[in-house]
Design a protein that fits this description.
With about 300 residues, the protein is an alpha/beta fold. It has two domains: about 70 residues; about 190 residues, 3-Layer(aba) Sandwich (Phosphatidylinositol Transfer Protein Sec14p), CATH 3.40.525.10. About 50% of the residues lie in helices and about 10% in strands. It has 15 helices and five strands. A five-stranded mixed beta sheet has the order 1-2-3-4-5. The two termini are about 15 Å apart. The N terminus is likely disordered.
Length: about 300
Protein backbone atom coordinates (compact mmCIF):
# COMPACT_ATOMS: atom_id res chain seq x y z
CA UNK A 1 0.00 0.00 0.00
CA UNK A 2 1.04 3.58 -0.63
CA UNK A 3 -0.29 4.64 2.77
CA UNK A 4 -2.55 3.75 5.65
CA UNK A 5 -6.23 4.53 5.99
CA UNK A 6 -5.31 7.22 8.49
CA UNK A 7 -3.35 8.91 5.73
CA UNK A 8 -6.55 10.27 4.21
CA UNK A 9 -8.08 11.77 7.36
CA UNK A 10 -9.30 15.33 6.82
CA UNK A 11 -8.84 18.03 9.42
CA UNK A 12 -12.11 19.47 10.71
CA UNK A 13 -12.72 23.07 9.70
CA UNK A 14 -15.28 25.32 11.37
CA UNK A 15 -16.52 27.06 8.27
CA UNK A 16 -20.19 27.58 7.26
CA UNK A 17 -19.23 27.32 3.59
CA UNK A 18 -17.45 24.04 4.32
CA UNK A 19 -20.66 22.76 5.97
CA UNK A 20 -22.40 23.27 2.62
CA UNK A 21 -19.72 21.16 0.94
CA UNK A 22 -20.03 18.42 3.57
CA UNK A 23 -23.81 18.29 3.24
CA UNK A 24 -23.41 17.81 -0.50
CA UNK A 25 -21.44 14.61 -0.04
CA UNK A 26 -23.41 11.38 -0.13
CA UNK A 27 -21.60 9.42 2.53
CA UNK A 28 -24.09 6.51 2.48
CA UNK A 29 -23.61 6.16 6.20
CA UNK A 30 -19.82 5.99 5.95
CA UNK A 31 -19.15 9.30 7.68
CA UNK A 32 -20.50 12.70 8.60
CA UNK A 33 -19.23 16.16 9.40
CA UNK A 34 -15.82 17.41 8.34
CA UNK A 35 -14.68 13.87 7.53
CA UNK A 36 -17.48 13.17 5.04
CA UNK A 37 -15.48 13.72 1.89
CA UNK A 38 -12.49 11.89 3.34
CA UNK A 39 -14.78 8.94 4.10
CA UNK A 40 -15.90 8.82 0.47
CA UNK A 41 -12.30 8.46 -0.66
CA UNK A 42 -11.39 6.03 2.13
CA UNK A 43 -14.34 3.89 1.05
CA UNK A 44 -12.89 3.66 -2.45
CA UNK A 45 -9.49 2.60 -1.13
CA UNK A 46 -11.11 0.12 1.25
CA UNK A 47 -13.15 -1.32 -1.64
CA UNK A 48 -9.88 -2.04 -3.44
CA UNK A 49 -8.32 -3.67 -0.38
CA UNK A 50 -11.33 -5.83 0.39
CA UNK A 51 -12.24 -6.72 -3.23
CA UNK A 52 -12.91 -10.41 -3.86
CA UNK A 53 -13.82 -12.28 -7.02
CA UNK A 54 -16.72 -13.97 -5.23
CA UNK A 55 -18.15 -10.58 -4.29
CA UNK A 56 -17.76 -9.22 -7.82
CA UNK A 57 -19.48 -12.25 -9.35
CA UNK A 58 -22.27 -12.07 -6.81
CA UNK A 59 -22.96 -8.43 -7.66
CA UNK A 60 -22.59 -8.67 -11.46
CA UNK A 61 -24.81 -11.14 -13.26
CA UNK A 62 -23.18 -10.34 -16.63
CA UNK A 63 -19.90 -11.97 -15.59
CA UNK A 64 -19.41 -15.68 -14.92
CA UNK A 65 -16.52 -17.40 -13.18
CA UNK A 66 -15.92 -19.52 -16.27
CA UNK A 67 -15.36 -16.32 -18.31
CA UNK A 68 -12.88 -15.00 -15.77
CA UNK A 69 -10.99 -18.31 -15.86
CA UNK A 70 -11.08 -18.39 -19.65
CA UNK A 71 -9.77 -14.84 -19.97
CA UNK A 72 -7.01 -15.54 -17.45
CA UNK A 73 -5.96 -18.71 -19.30
CA UNK A 74 -5.94 -16.87 -22.63
CA UNK A 75 -3.78 -14.07 -21.19
CA UNK A 76 -1.30 -16.60 -19.85
CA UNK A 77 -1.18 -18.80 -22.95
CA UNK A 78 -0.87 -15.86 -25.33
CA UNK A 79 1.66 -14.19 -23.01
CA UNK A 80 -0.45 -11.05 -23.06
CA UNK A 81 -0.63 -9.80 -19.48
CA UNK A 82 0.28 -13.27 -18.10
CA UNK A 83 0.25 -11.99 -14.51
CA UNK A 84 -2.98 -10.01 -14.78
CA UNK A 85 -4.75 -9.39 -11.47
CA UNK A 86 -8.30 -10.62 -10.98
CA UNK A 87 -9.85 -7.14 -10.54
CA UNK A 88 -8.48 -6.13 -13.93
CA UNK A 89 -9.74 -9.36 -15.52
CA UNK A 90 -13.19 -8.51 -14.21
CA UNK A 91 -12.87 -4.91 -15.41
CA UNK A 92 -12.16 -6.11 -18.96
CA UNK A 93 -15.18 -8.40 -18.91
CA UNK A 94 -17.37 -5.74 -17.33
CA UNK A 95 -16.52 -3.06 -19.90
CA UNK A 96 -17.26 -5.68 -22.60
CA UNK A 97 -20.60 -6.58 -20.94
CA UNK A 98 -19.57 -10.18 -20.46
CA UNK A 99 -18.49 -10.74 -24.07
CA UNK A 100 -15.30 -12.82 -23.78
CA UNK A 101 -14.09 -12.18 -27.33
CA UNK A 102 -14.64 -8.44 -26.97
CA UNK A 103 -12.76 -8.52 -23.66
CA UNK A 104 -9.82 -10.17 -25.43
CA UNK A 105 -9.84 -7.43 -28.05
CA UNK A 106 -9.72 -4.77 -25.33
CA UNK A 107 -6.86 -6.60 -23.59
CA UNK A 108 -4.87 -6.67 -26.85
CA UNK A 109 -5.13 -2.91 -27.32
CA UNK A 110 -4.54 -2.26 -23.61
CA UNK A 111 -1.30 -4.24 -23.63
CA UNK A 112 -0.14 -3.04 -27.04
CA UNK A 113 -0.57 0.68 -26.40
CA UNK A 114 0.79 0.57 -22.88
CA UNK A 115 3.88 -1.44 -23.83
CA UNK A 116 4.62 0.81 -26.82
CA UNK A 117 4.03 4.13 -25.06
CA UNK A 118 6.51 4.19 -22.17
CA UNK A 119 6.41 7.98 -22.01
CA UNK A 120 2.86 7.64 -20.68
CA UNK A 121 2.70 4.22 -19.04
CA UNK A 122 6.20 3.55 -17.64
CA UNK A 123 7.58 4.82 -14.30
CA UNK A 124 4.11 5.75 -13.11
CA UNK A 125 4.52 5.93 -9.36
CA UNK A 126 2.28 8.59 -7.87
CA UNK A 127 5.33 9.85 -6.00
CA UNK A 128 7.51 10.20 -9.12
CA UNK A 129 8.88 13.62 -9.97
CA UNK A 130 7.19 13.61 -13.38
CA UNK A 131 3.71 12.86 -12.02
CA UNK A 132 4.08 15.45 -9.28
CA UNK A 133 5.26 18.02 -11.83
CA UNK A 134 2.26 17.25 -14.07
CA UNK A 135 -0.06 17.73 -11.11
CA UNK A 136 1.46 21.14 -10.55
CA UNK A 137 0.33 22.07 -14.05
CA UNK A 138 -3.10 20.42 -14.11
CA UNK A 139 -5.89 19.14 -11.90
CA UNK A 140 -6.76 15.43 -12.13
CA UNK A 141 -9.60 15.11 -9.63
CA UNK A 142 -11.81 12.20 -8.70
CA UNK A 143 -15.10 13.52 -7.32
CA UNK A 144 -16.60 11.94 -4.18
CA UNK A 145 -20.23 11.93 -5.35
CA UNK A 146 -21.57 9.83 -8.21
CA UNK A 147 -24.26 10.92 -10.65
CA UNK A 148 -27.82 9.66 -10.13
CA UNK A 149 -27.00 6.82 -12.57
CA UNK A 150 -24.09 5.77 -10.36
CA UNK A 151 -21.40 7.12 -12.69
CA UNK A 152 -18.03 8.17 -11.24
CA UNK A 153 -16.91 11.67 -12.31
CA UNK A 154 -13.30 12.64 -13.07
CA UNK A 155 -12.33 16.25 -13.76
CA UNK A 156 -9.26 17.49 -15.62
CA UNK A 157 -8.38 21.18 -15.82
CA UNK A 158 -5.39 23.44 -16.20
CA UNK A 159 -3.85 24.61 -12.96
CA UNK A 160 -1.08 26.65 -14.58
CA UNK A 161 -2.18 28.21 -17.89
CA UNK A 162 1.41 28.76 -19.10
CA UNK A 163 1.79 26.62 -22.27
CA UNK A 164 5.56 26.44 -21.81
CA UNK A 165 5.20 24.24 -18.71
CA UNK A 166 2.61 21.90 -20.27
CA UNK A 167 3.93 18.47 -21.30
CA UNK A 168 1.31 16.30 -22.99
CA UNK A 169 2.97 12.96 -22.17
CA UNK A 170 3.26 13.87 -18.48
CA UNK A 171 -0.32 15.11 -18.38
CA UNK A 172 -1.52 11.86 -19.97
CA UNK A 173 0.54 9.88 -17.46
CA UNK A 174 -1.15 11.61 -14.51
CA UNK A 175 -4.55 11.31 -16.20
CA UNK A 176 -4.36 7.54 -16.76
CA UNK A 177 -2.75 6.94 -13.38
CA UNK A 178 -5.82 8.55 -11.80
CA UNK A 179 -8.22 6.55 -13.97
CA UNK A 180 -6.38 3.29 -13.26
CA UNK A 181 -6.63 3.90 -9.52
CA UNK A 182 -10.39 4.37 -9.71
CA UNK A 183 -10.86 1.33 -11.96
CA UNK A 184 -8.82 -0.74 -9.49
CA UNK A 185 -11.10 0.42 -6.67
CA UNK A 186 -14.32 0.06 -8.71
CA UNK A 187 -13.72 -2.40 -11.58
CA UNK A 188 -17.46 -2.90 -12.15
CA UNK A 189 -18.65 0.69 -11.83
CA UNK A 190 -21.76 1.35 -13.98
CA UNK A 191 -19.93 4.05 -15.86
CA UNK A 192 -17.57 7.00 -15.88
CA UNK A 193 -18.00 10.63 -16.85
CA UNK A 194 -14.99 12.76 -17.74
CA UNK A 195 -15.09 16.54 -17.49
CA UNK A 196 -12.46 18.61 -19.31
CA UNK A 197 -12.33 22.29 -18.45
CA UNK A 198 -11.16 24.22 -21.51
CA UNK A 199 -10.68 27.46 -19.59
CA UNK A 200 -7.22 28.93 -20.29
CA UNK A 201 -6.49 26.31 -22.99
CA UNK A 202 -4.61 27.87 -25.89
CA UNK A 203 -3.54 26.62 -29.29
CA UNK A 204 -0.02 26.47 -27.87
CA UNK A 205 -1.20 23.64 -25.61
CA UNK A 206 -2.49 21.79 -28.66
CA UNK A 207 0.77 22.18 -30.58
CA UNK A 208 2.52 20.50 -27.64
CA UNK A 209 0.56 17.32 -28.41
CA UNK A 210 2.31 16.49 -31.66
CA UNK A 211 0.74 13.79 -33.85
CA UNK A 212 2.12 10.39 -32.87
CA UNK A 213 1.21 10.43 -29.17
CA UNK A 214 -2.42 11.63 -29.51
CA UNK A 215 -3.02 8.84 -32.03
CA UNK A 216 -1.93 6.25 -29.43
CA UNK A 217 -3.74 7.93 -26.56
CA UNK A 218 -7.05 8.13 -28.40
CA UNK A 219 -6.76 4.55 -29.57
CA UNK A 220 -6.30 3.54 -25.94
CA UNK A 221 -9.25 5.67 -24.83
CA UNK A 222 -11.54 4.15 -27.43
CA UNK A 223 -10.39 0.53 -27.60
CA UNK A 224 -8.19 -0.32 -24.61
CA UNK A 225 -9.58 1.40 -21.55
CA UNK A 226 -11.24 -1.17 -19.23
CA UNK A 227 -14.20 0.93 -18.16
CA UNK A 228 -17.57 2.08 -19.45
CA UNK A 229 -17.16 5.67 -20.61
CA UNK A 230 -20.63 7.20 -20.65
CA UNK A 231 -20.10 10.89 -21.37
CA UNK A 232 -17.29 13.38 -21.92
CA UNK A 233 -18.08 17.00 -21.09
CA UNK A 234 -16.04 19.97 -22.31
CA UNK A 235 -16.65 23.05 -20.17
CA UNK A 236 -15.99 26.73 -20.80
CA UNK A 237 -15.74 26.14 -24.52
CA UNK A 238 -14.97 29.02 -26.89
CA UNK A 239 -14.63 29.24 -30.69
CA UNK A 240 -11.18 27.73 -30.15
CA UNK A 241 -12.95 24.42 -29.49
CA UNK A 242 -13.86 24.17 -33.17
CA UNK A 243 -10.17 24.27 -34.08
CA UNK A 244 -9.35 21.74 -31.37
CA UNK A 245 -11.99 19.34 -32.69
CA UNK A 246 -10.66 19.69 -36.23
CA UNK A 247 -7.25 18.63 -34.90
CA UNK A 248 -8.70 15.69 -32.95
CA UNK A 249 -11.26 14.40 -35.42
CA UNK A 250 -8.81 12.18 -37.38
CA UNK A 251 -8.09 10.28 -34.15
CA UNK A 252 -11.64 9.96 -32.85
CA UNK A 253 -14.26 7.44 -33.89
CA UNK A 254 -17.85 8.56 -34.34
CA UNK A 255 -18.87 6.35 -31.39
CA UNK A 256 -16.69 8.40 -29.05
CA UNK A 257 -17.71 11.71 -30.59
CA UNK A 258 -21.34 10.77 -29.94
CA UNK A 259 -20.83 11.04 -26.16
CA UNK A 260 -19.18 14.48 -26.31
CA UNK A 261 -21.08 17.33 -24.67
CA UNK A 262 -19.96 20.96 -25.09
CA UNK A 263 -20.81 23.72 -22.63
CA UNK A 264 -19.98 27.42 -22.79
CA UNK A 265 -19.58 29.42 -19.59
CA UNK A 266 -23.21 30.53 -20.01
CA UNK A 267 -24.54 27.02 -20.61
CA UNK A 268 -24.07 25.37 -17.22
CA UNK A 269 -27.75 24.61 -16.69
CA UNK A 270 -27.57 21.91 -19.35
CA UNK A 271 -24.58 20.41 -17.53
CA UNK A 272 -26.56 20.28 -14.28
CA UNK A 273 -29.21 18.17 -16.01
CA UNK A 274 -26.58 15.45 -16.47
CA UNK A 275 -24.28 16.11 -13.51
CA UNK A 276 -26.20 17.60 -10.57
CA UNK A 277 -24.60 20.44 -8.63
CA UNK A 278 -24.03 18.26 -5.58
CA UNK A 279 -21.69 16.18 -7.78
CA UNK A 280 -19.66 19.17 -9.00
CA UNK A 281 -16.97 21.39 -7.49
CA UNK A 282 -17.49 25.02 -6.61
CA UNK A 283 -15.57 26.06 -9.74
CA UNK A 284 -18.56 25.01 -11.88
CA UNK A 285 -21.38 26.22 -9.64
CA UNK A 286 -21.44 22.98 -7.67
CA UNK A 287 -21.71 22.33 -3.94
CA UNK A 288 -18.45 20.41 -3.51
CA UNK A 289 -15.18 22.13 -2.54
CA UNK A 290 -13.09 23.80 -5.24
CA UNK A 291 -10.73 21.76 -7.41
CA UNK A 292 -7.71 22.62 -5.30
CA UNK A 293 -9.21 20.95 -2.22
CA UNK A 294 -10.59 18.03 -4.23
CA UNK A 295 -7.12 17.48 -5.68
CA UNK A 296 -5.77 17.14 -2.13
CA UNK A 297 -8.34 14.43 -1.40
CA UNK A 298 -7.56 12.73 -4.71
CA UNK A 299 -3.83 12.83 -4.01
CA UNK A 300 -4.28 11.11 -0.66
CA UNK A 301 -6.40 8.46 -2.38
CA UNK A 302 -3.76 7.96 -5.10
CA UNK A 303 -1.02 7.62 -2.49
CA UNK A 304 -3.15 4.98 -0.75
CA UNK A 305 -3.67 3.15 -4.03
CA UNK A 306 -0.12 3.51 -5.38
CA UNK A 307 0.97 -0.11 -4.92
CA UNK A 308 -2.29 -1.49 -6.33
CA UNK A 309 -2.30 0.47 -9.60
CA UNK A 310 -1.36 -1.67 -12.64
CA UNK A 311 2.08 -0.88 -14.05
Amino acid sequence: MGGSRDAVDVQEVDDPEQDQFEDAVDTSGSGTGADAIGCAFRDMAEAARSWTLDGALRDNAEIERSQVNALRSWCQESEILPDIAEPLLVAFLHCSRGDLEQAKAVVRVYESVRSKTPEVFADRSFHSEEVQRAKGVGYFCVLPNKTPEGYRVIVQALRDPDPTVFVYSSSSKAQFLTMDAVVRAEPTAPGYVCVFDMNAVQMSHMWAWGIRLPRKVFRYLQEGLPLRMQRIHFLNTTPLMDRVMRMLRPFIRKELQSIFQFHTADDMENLYKMIPQDCLPENYGGFLPPLEKLQDYTDKFLAEMNNMIPT
